[in-house]
Amino acid sequence: MKKLFLISLIFTLVSCSDFLDENMQGIYTSGTFYETDEHAMLALTAAYQPLSFTSIRNPLWVFGDVASDDAIKGGNPGDQSEIEFIGQFNYTQDNGFLEHIWQRYYEGISRANDVLHRLGPDVSEEMREQVAAEAKFLRAYYYFHLVNIYGEIPLKTEPALTVDDLHVPVSTVAQVYEQIEEDLKDAAENLPENAGGQFGRATRGAALGLLAKVYLFQQKYELSLQAVEDIEMLGMYSLMPLYTHNFMTDFQNNAESLFEIQHLSEQDPFQGNVLNQWFAPQHENGYYFNVPTQEFVDAFELTEQEVVDPRLDYTLGREGQTWINGNDFDPAWSPTGFLQKKHLQPLSEIPVGTKGDGDLNYVFMRYAEILLIKAEALNESNRPSEALAPLNQVRKRARESYLFDESLNGFGEIPEDLLPDITNTNQSQLREIIRNERRVELGFEFHRFYDLMRYGKSYAEQKLSDTNFDYDQHRYFSIPQNEVDINNQINN
Question: Domains in the chain and their CATH numbers?
């Protein structure tokens, strides 16, 4: 979905008698807008818009990365201090970033609900089915993030038609997940296998992928495995030969991508990806936020000859390595000595003057994650020997970077003992191996904090021991004060 559409408002001068006798032209109300197939598609497009990273008001990275052990805020010490408060778990309920993602994702839910409930009788049945399936996927996506960040939240599945409809009590986490499951199952049944070249639209694979993840998060392992099997039966997804291609504009919407959020530069209205500026070094007109920690770097495996997992240098810049523009990386660019690469574009694509108008997509779900979901679900189902195959597929692709990337020192031959296949079938030990594999494979794709929380109290408190994190107090973030103030059904 590389284009966003606007409804033009056309104002014309008319006489008083004309005004009294005729409907105003070019202005739509909720009673006149949802009447045609074109209107239905425009409304659906609006429901996609909050997914994008076109402004700081979608700070998913703050909750996925900075709140985890993989990253700290970065940037100038006093800049955007509210992010630091979240990362240290000493925030207050009026924290602006708590409000940003809450408001943006509930706006997405509201727009999805409008698509599902406001379509008029003249919308064709084919269009109605299509947009309803996509709207349900989007609603599930927004709720998945909200329930993982905030826990018990208001569950809104219909448009707000009266003031009273704005006051909705919170539902339990289980109830929210039940709605997510229902939406995703309906979406998977009705969505097409591919978007027909309209990149960014939800597909059956996207719905099944998120469903597999939702089941995994609830420890419904057999159901998760069934969703993975349904994905495999589609025969559409595979690992890219080179890991880093998943984060380059020349390879967007590739065979590994199940769901990818689209961005486009030089558009009016703005559709660019601002993360390209938020994460870039200062000398490139960036703010150098969301910087990797040493603990994250240490999670990558080394051979006895100290050859590192190539995913490390595909993920971040560090001393002694080449930066994305071909120059040497300077550790002074970052307070930790590292900067992530996955959301950055070289200056040859996006120059300094338009740094915040990137056209690199955000890949929410890749086939590599599906394989790791399968490995984890099999291991937790007491089938550790079966878990090795999908786990080792991911590792094999990583080590074979040396067969596809000519820039690697030693290209053409895989270094000895680099990322060997895992053979350990001890369930407890394999669990830790799979968890670390998720960390290094999916690093800085905004997933880590959710994983820490679902792994449980002792694991999360150990990994976040250098912050004020207390699992019983901080398992979920507080509902923003602004929402508490306007929704009289929420008990503070």
Answer: 32-190+456-492 (1.25.40.390)
